[in-house]
Amino acid sequence: MQVCSKAKRLIAAVILDAGGVILHPNLDWIAAQTSDLAEDDGRTPGRDDLLRAYYCTIYDLDMDGEMDRRGPAFTGLEIRVWFFTRMLAHAGLPCARELGAELAQRALERFPRESDIYHWAMPGTRERLVRLRAAGFLLGAASNNDDALEAQLTRVGVRHLFGALKDSGREGVAKPDPELLLRAARELSVPPAHCLYVGDVDRVDGAAARAAGMAFALLDPLDQPRATSPLCIPGLDAILAHFSCILAP
């Protein structure tokens, strides 16, 4: 065993949520649709603007006590209208309510299943995952999903980097129940205490990780506060600043 840094916590596996961590809604499609819908206004957000707006909206739902405790499921028009209206408002668009409703309708037609819009990853995601593997970490994914996790990760070219995939649509158990994370740890043959789980919704992902006895990192580039004060990271590369692998690669 080789300790790389005394200041860093030692772990063996990094288990990741999918949506908001590995995958994102197709921000390029959203930007193009928003540009089309708001063509008379002349103010349309780009990918980076929408990414910031996305995490602002994730924060809103994390703070929303009325939201399903398993997190949002974008299966119908109502939740999509809520999400896109908030997202476009955070992106600074006027008439966000009207634009959000139209965008939600288009998204429902183009991406009928919740998972469909998440077959997309930000540029550089694969390279960040490769760096985690190169540092010696085993990788797993555990996601509240609709049996599309493997297809999503294959679509963005990262499936081969993961030693365990746990999809709630296939497993029959969903976060915040810690069992989904524990199954990923067992498949990786790593004790929960030596696992880090990374998610973007503290009351779902953080709750599951804490109940599983795992370390938790909240991926939020905006570092928005949560009541539990979780470790907040701006991106996957930041894992390397806080954690070292138990076994040197």
Please, could you describe this protein's structure?
The protein is an alpha/beta fold and 249 residues long. It folds into two domains: 9-23 and 121-245, Rossmann fold (3-Layer(aba) Sandwich); 27-117. Helices cover 41% and strands 13% of the residues. It has ten helices and eight strands. It has helices at residues 27-37, 47-63, 77-90, 96-110, 125-134, 149-155, 168-171, 179-188, 202-212, 239-242, and strands at 9-11, 13-16, 138-143, 164-167, 195-199, 215-219, 231-233, 243-245. A six-stranded parallel β-sheet has the order 4-3-2-5-6-7, sandwiched between helices. Helix 9 links the parallel strand 5 and strand 6 (215-219). Helix 3 (77-90) crosses helix 4. The longest helix has 17 residues, at 47-63.
Which features characterize this protein?
41% helix, alpha/beta, single chain, Rossmann fold, 249 residues
Overall outline: globular
Domain count, please report it.
Answer: 2
Largest sheet: 6 strands, parallel
**Which class of the largest domain in CATH terms?**
Alpha Beta
Cα radius of gyration in angstroms: 18 Å
Helix and strand succession? Answer: EEHHHHHEHEHHEHEEHE
Strands across the major sheet, in which order? Answer: 4-3-2-5-6-7
| Helix-and-strand structural type | alpha/beta
Counted by DSSP, the helix tally is 10
CATH topology of the largest domain: Rossmann fold
Query: What is the fourth-level CATH superfamily of the largest domain?
Result: HAD superfamily/HAD-like
In the CATH hierarchy, the architecture of the largest domain is 3-Layer(aba) Sandwich
Head-to-tail CA distance between termini: 10 Å
Q: State the total count of DSSP E strands.
A: 8
Mean pLDDT: 91
Strand content: 5-15%
